Amino acid sequence: MGRSSVGQMGEDIACRYLERKGHHIIDRNFRMKFGEIDVVSEKGTTVFISEVKTVVGSSMGESDNHRPEENVSSWKLKKLSRVVQVYLSEKYNLSHTSTMRWKFLVIAIVLDVEEKTARVRVIEDVLD
């Protein structure tokens, strides 16, 4: 299983997870030259920006002794905050952006390919 197919599978799982939690997916893979937002969703009056990190491992333990969310470095968060600012200003009224309610999520997924299961963990308020 290639890296891009693992990432795509993780994003699909993350979207289904968010939809089961009452979110409406409004955008995926918003790309800019300096970064990408994996998933954007809305629930109520809040916009959720999600970074999805997926690894292949065992559902009983971690993959290669690390957790997928450890792949979100402070440098990556800094890059993402810039993409989030551009996304919100492009997709929403700029004057509304400063007062709009939004949250950043890291969605960590461990795939167990043999068992055909996935463990999903959501970390909130990473960019506060």
Automatic annotation (TrEMBL):
Report any Pfam family annotated for this entry.
UPF0102
So which domain of life are we looking at?
Bacteria
Cited Gene3D superfamilies = 3.40.1350.10
Fetch the InterPro entries from UniProt: Restrct_endonuc-II-like, tRNA_endonuc-like_dom_sf, UPF0102_YraN-like
* GO molecular function per UniProt: nucleic acid binding
Similarity comment: Belongs to the UPF0102 family.
The record's section on HAMAP family has: UPF0102 (MF_00048)
Protein name stated in the entry: UPF0102 protein A3C06_00255
